[in-house]
Design goal:
6-stranded antiparallel sheet; BirA Bifunctional Protein, domain 2; elongated; alpha+beta
């Protein structure tokens, strides 16, 4: 799915206020996480295009929350965030450039680079200390990288709207150079040098997600350098920066490329565009609990084709009787459709797809 076709709106924001743990968990699993995954895919696609690298050679996609297929007990935890991002592959012998404190082989890395959605909105973050098992010398390698490329990373922060989480104390003031902060943190063994972006607040439109993808792509060389260091290889940071500069020169700015893609989309037939517009008119803003309860009632699946989040589709709510024909905003007039079936149903169609075939 293209970034232009997904968004996060006030209903998603209000989900984090729904005081029903199972409902909130199911909504995150079947609606929020699939869209985060598509947003992440857009980021990865841009990374591979700009840097001419295969992201999944060394990384996998991870999610939070991670749900068990069957719940043994009633869920009582109210999740306050959803996450989809990249992390180093679990592998024995691959991460020979870093060491564990207990001497065992490193299979998991404490590096995560991804997208997180909360009640406040969407952020990009790069964590490098969420697991505490690596040796001090392993973390020193990362700080040495930041000290070596301090000025370039500083510029990347501007381009990607990212800010480091820096500590200070003693002879280091709150407003100091990156180098002064890093040298102090290294000396004091304060290794949680995380980076976080500005918040894209609701409603998060397709244009916002294009901006997110651009920022995610720009900061990727830092995450990639962590992986190279962990594999015991030289950083390819300057090589990736050269490719980023080449791409920036060729496109001038990311908006030009997105405009070209929009122009190509105009070749879609008028019939499909008409149905898409009609489907857009059908998008509803209902009470947050109502939206998720419609999904819950319909089993978190499209009532037309039976596909759900596990099939890679995005779920929407559809008016059975369109508003333009007097359809009401009430539970019995809603049905769950995936994004493909929703486009195929126009506002002239009053079909209740929940009814068995042949029923009247």
């Amino acid at each position: 799915m293209e970034l232009e076709k997904i968004s996060f709106d006030d209903s998603d924001k209000n989900l984090f206020q729904v005081d029903d743990p199972p409902l909130r968990a199911d909504a995150i699993k079947h609606s929020i996480l699939p869209r985060l995954r598509f947003a992440l895919n857009g980021c990865i696609s841009l990374i591979e295009r700009v840097y001419e690298t295969e992201v999944f050679d060394d990384s996998i996609i991870s999610f939070y929350p991670q749900f068990r297929r069957k719940r043994e007990n009633e869920l009582k935890h109210l999740y306050e965030a959803a996450y989809a991002g990249l992390g180093g592959k679990r592998a024995k012998g691959k991460w020979c450039g870093v060491e564990r404190k207990d001497g065992k082989p490193v299979q998991f890395l404490p590096f995560r680079y991804g997208l997180q959605l909360t009640e406040d909105g969407l952020v990009i973050f790069l964590e490098n200390y969420w697991l505490k098992g690596l040796t001090d010398n392993s973390h020193k390698k990362l700080f040495d990288f930041h000290l070596e490329y301090e000025s370039l990373i500083h510029v990347l922060c501007y381009h990607s709207k990212m800010s480091p989480d820096l500590d200070y104390g003693e002879d280091v003031e709150p407003i100091s150079t990156f180098r002064q902060h890093y040298e102090y943190m290294l000396r004091e063994k304060l290794f949680d040098n995380h980076f976080g972006s500005e918040v894209w607040a609701y409603s998060i439109s397709s244009n916002s997600l294009l901006d997110v993808a651009y920022c995610f792509m720009c900061f990727f060389p830092v995450y990639d350098s962590y992986l190279q260091i962990a594999m015991g290889k030289p950083s390819r940071f300057t090589e990736l920066i050269a490719k980023l500069n080449k791409w920036e020169r060729e496109t001038d700015e990311i908006g030009d490329e997105m405009s070209d893609e929009s122009a190509a989309e105009e070749q879609i037939s008028e019939e499909i565009l008409l149905k898409a517009r009609e489907a857009a008119e059908q998008r509803i803003k209902v009470m947050p609990a109502m939206r998720w309860r419609v999904f819950q009632r319909d089993g978190w699946k499209c009532v037309a084709c039976g596909r759900g989040s596990q099939d890679g589709v995005i779920l929407h709510i559809d008016h059975i009787v369109p508003r333009s024909k007097g359809g009401r905003d009430e539970l019995k007039n809603y049905q769950t459709l995936c994004h493909l079936c929703n486009i195929g149903k126009s506002n002239r169609d009053e079909t209740d797809l929940r009814k068995p075939k042949g029923a009247h």
